[in-house]
Amino acid sequence: MTAPFGRRLCEVAGNEVSGGYRIFSLLDREGPPPEPGQFYMLAGERGWGEGGGRPFLPRAISVAETAPAKDGVRLDFLVEGVGPGTDRLCELEPGERAWVTGPLGNSFSTPQQVNPDAAGAILAGGGIGIAPLAIWRRHLVERGIPLRVLLGFRNEQHSGGLDELFCSGGALCPDVRLATEDGHVGHRGYVTDLLATMLAGDDATSAVVYSCGPPAMLEAVASLCNSHGVPYQLAEESPMACGFGACFGCAVPKPNGDGYIRLCVDGPVTSAGGTVGGTMSEEALATGRHGGSPAVTGPADHQPRSLDFCGIDLAHPVINASGTYDAIAARKVFGDELLEEFPFAAFVSKTITPEPRAGNEPQRIWETPAGMINSIGLPNKGLEGFLAEDLPQLAELPVPLIVSVMATNREDFSRLVREVGERDEVAAIELNVSCPNVHSGLIVGEQPAETEALLEALRPLTPKPLIVKLTPNVANPEAVALAAEEGGADAVSLINTLKASAIDPATGAPALAAGHGGLSGPAVRPIALQQLRAVRAATELPLIGMGGISSGADAAEFIAAGAALVAVGTESFRDPRAGSRIAKELETGVSGPPPRVGAFDLE
Ligand code: RRO
Fold it and tell me: Less Cβ around it within 10 Å: N or C end of the chain?
C-alpha cells in the first residue's frame, strides 16, 4: 500500500486534553486507513513557519487509532507538547486544518508472520509510546490473537491516553497491566519489570513482544527479549524532516553496526536482528501488493520539453537540490503517482563517492528558525553500488538525470566522472566540491586554484555537461565560479549549505553529533540570492540558483537575479510535491497560499 503523493489539508476533528497529553484527531478524506505502526507527517495550516520561524518542519506522529468516518477516516494521535511543533499541534482547534502526509512507514507483523509457531503477543508501551500499541492491540483482538499488554508511566500526568485508548466502559481493558514510577497505580517501578517477570514464565517464550517507548526502555526490552530468545518488534522514533526518505535525518544504527537504516522508510517498526518488520501489510498479503518497488514497466514517457539547459531539454526551470530527494525511496512510499507528476524537470541524485559511506552518526538534523541544519555525512552506496542498483531505477524517471559526485582526490574524481559520464542514462554530472559535512582535509571548492585544476583534469574525460556546485562558505564565491569556468565547467550551481551549529538547550552540548552542519531553508535565501548575483556578475556560465526557495515568487527572484534554473531542497521535506507547485506558481505568477515562511508583514 502506498501513500497518496504529496501533502493534503485535513480538518481537525477534535483536540481533547488527556492528562498531560492531547488526543488530536483529523478527518482524512483522501488517504487509505493506516496500518498499526504507521505514522503521518503533520503541520498546522497556519502558525507553522510564521513569526519566529518555528515550528518549520512537519512533525512525525504515530497513529494511535483510526475509525471510518463520514467521507473518510478519522485519525487519532496522542501528542505531548514538548517543543514548538507539538505545542502548536496541541493548540489546533476543531475546524482548523493541518497539512498531512501519509500514512508512512511500515507496520507491525502479526505474531504468526514473525514466527509461525508463535502463540500470542505481549505489548509493552511506555509513556507516549503507548499510542501505536493501542491500534495494534485492537487489530490483534479483532483477529482473536491472545495478547497481554503492559504499560508504564512516570506518573499520573504522563499517563495521558490511557483512558481513551486502553479502557472500555470506564474500566481498564482486562488484558492490560500497569507500572508507574511513582507507584500511584499498578506496579511501582518500570514496565520492563513486568516484562521481565512475564518472560521468565513458561508460557511467554512462544510470544512475540511489540514495544514502543523511550529509547532506554526499548533497549531494555530488546535486551530482555534477546536473553529469553523471544522475537520482538520495536516501533522506534527519530527526528525526521520529511518522512519519505528524502532528508536522511532519521538514521538509526543497524544492530550489527554496519551502517544505518532510515526509520521513515525502513521502519519505524524494526525487528530483532535488524530486519525491518511489517513491510507487507495484511492487505498487501491478501492482494499480493506490497510497499516495495512497483512493477517495472520500462522507462516512463518523457514530458514535452521547452527549455534548453546546457543542451538538455527541460519542461520547466525547477529541479531538485542534490541530496534532498531520494526518488527511489519516494517511489516506494508514493507509488507510480510520483512518476505521473514528477515534481522536477530534471532529477539530481544524492552525491555519490567512489566507495560506500554509512554517513554521520545521528543526531543528523536540527530545526532552526525558518530552516534546519543537516549533518548527514554523504551516506551512499559508492560508485559500483550506484551504477548497479540505483542507476537503472533512476533511469525510469520521466526526466533527465544529473548525477552528483564527490571525491577527496583528483584520481577518484576522475574515475567517478569517467564511469558515470559514459552511461547513456546520465545527462550531466554535478561536481560537489562544497559538502560541509565531510572531513576530507580540503574542500576543493574553497580555493579557486584547486577548483580550476580539478576542472582541467576532469574536462577531457566526458563530453557531458559538468556543473560545479559552489560552497557559500567563502568570501568570494565569484572567484571560485570564475575558476570553474576557466577550467572548463559548463554551469555552476549555488548555494550548498552554510556552515552552522546549534546547541541542544536540554544538554548544553552541540545538537548535532558531528558538532556542526549545513544550514538550509528560507533563512538562507537572502544570502543565496546575493551570492548568485555576485557570481552572475563574474561569469557567463548558466547558473542553477538555490537556497530556501519555497514558492514561485522566491524562484522568480533567483531567475530575475540571473539563474537559468532553480533548485528546491528543504521545501520538499515539508511538501513532497513542492517542485511542481513552485514550477506552476512560477508559470502563473501566483504564489500561495500564504503564509510565506520567513516573510515579514512589511514585505
Ligand atoms: O550529506 C551531507 O551531509 C551533505 C552534503 Br554531501 C552536501 O553537499 N551538503 C549538505 O548540506 N549535506
Answer: C
